[in-house]
């Protein structure tokens, strides 16, 4: 009886369609170019190759974890992460659309990190914080969550190495000021509130200077 039950469950699982089709990166590319029908297309801010825009503090999306990208876009839609521009530009996408967009950006090649123009003293201070932390102030190193070389760990901790300094700084200040609350354990909020403005600039500059691959 137990074997028959297992067989029946397996058969039923084949007959019942899944809620979502497999992610389609090619369709995601089309969606990224045309937008959701009411807002700007993704490439208008994030670039034709997902490279982002440092001047506008628009993050690089190319090569980020697919699950993280989907979860982030979903958070903008349901309001657990707030950004008026993002929410306006993706509010008409279906969940399948978001999955396809995430698959597209995740498979894009990661751009080479540009040489940093930040002062070496600032980069050195940022390196110390990012790799060693400051345990006296209860600030762990970035790599303790974001993985070796800060290249990301699954869908929960994104790659921050090579990300634009302007975006990293913007987001750390958002955590610091309580404008981001999508972290259920408030880990980033607690860390950001212990950082000075100079430390934020330093760690953002260092991370931006690191290889994203």
Task: Tell me what you see in this structure.
It is built from 11 helices and no strands. Helices cover 51% and strands 0% of the residues. The chain has helices at 2-15, 25-34, 43-46, 66-78, 84-90, 95-106, 120-132, 143-146, 165-176, 187-192, 197-209. The chain has 213 residues and is mostly helical. It has 2 domains: 2-106, Cytochrome c-like domain (Cytochrome Bc1 Complex, Chain D, domain 2, Orthogonal Bundle); 120-209, Cytochrome c-like domain (Cytochrome Bc1 Complex, Chain D, domain 2, Orthogonal Bundle), CATH 1.10.760.10. The longest helix has 14 residues, at 2-15. One of its GO terms (cellular component) is periplasmic space. Heme c 2 binds at residues 142, 145-146, 188. Heme c 1 binds at residues 42, 45-46, 86. Residues 23-211 form the Cytochrome c domain. It comes from Pseudidiomarina maritima.
How does the SSE layout of this entry go?
Elements: H1 2-15, H2 25-34, H3 43-46, H4 66-78, H5 84-90, H6 95-106, H7 120-132, H8 143-146, H9 165-176, H10 187-192, H11 197-209
Helix pairs in contact: 2-6, 4-6, 7-11, 9-11
